[in-house]
Amino acid sequence: MSRFVIIFLVLLAVAPLVPVVLDRLAAPEGQTAANERPAPAAQETGERSHRISRNRQGHFVASAVLNGRAVNMLVDTGATLTALPETLAGDIGIFLKSSDFKYPVNTANGTIYGARAVIDGFRIGNIRLRNIDALVLKDRSLGEPLLGMSVLNQLERFDMSGGTLVLVQ
Prior knowledge:
- There is one protein chain.
- The protein has helices at about 1-15, 20-25, 40-45, 85-90, 150, and strands spanning about 35, 50-55, 60-65, 70-75, 80-85, 105, 110-125, 125-135, 145, 155-160, 165-169.
- It has about 170 residues and is α+β, with helices and mostly antiparallel strands.
- The chain has one domain: Cathepsin D, subunit A, domain 1 (Beta Barrel).
- Strand 7 and strand 8 form a beta hairpin.
- The N and C termini lie far apart (about 35 Å).
């Protein structure tokens, strides 16, 4: 439980970055887990959509492909940005210097520093996105990657109903 509180506080502290993210989103421009499947609407209308079922813990965990690497991510609609642990960022080709970690994030354990980054290619099911704004945190500060609003805002819509999250591009 304290882990979720820490993650929530980290993301709350990232809120000052929202204007930067919104400016970037306004500019022009996988691998499927067992609990994910293409939405029927995709076959009928040609739109790209993807369904994710809630797991046993009540969370939506998506299998995404970031810059060509398969990654399981916790979907967090309360997260302004998609957040990545530093090791994962390096694994997908985002290499940072110590000086890049300059954005303060307040947590229950004190202030930590994150680095802004961009994920060049992002895929979840048949949905493909580019140039996703992200925040990279030291591994000890973030255990698992979070799929935040910097991804969800690039979709046409997303809906939660009956234990299923539907993403539509």
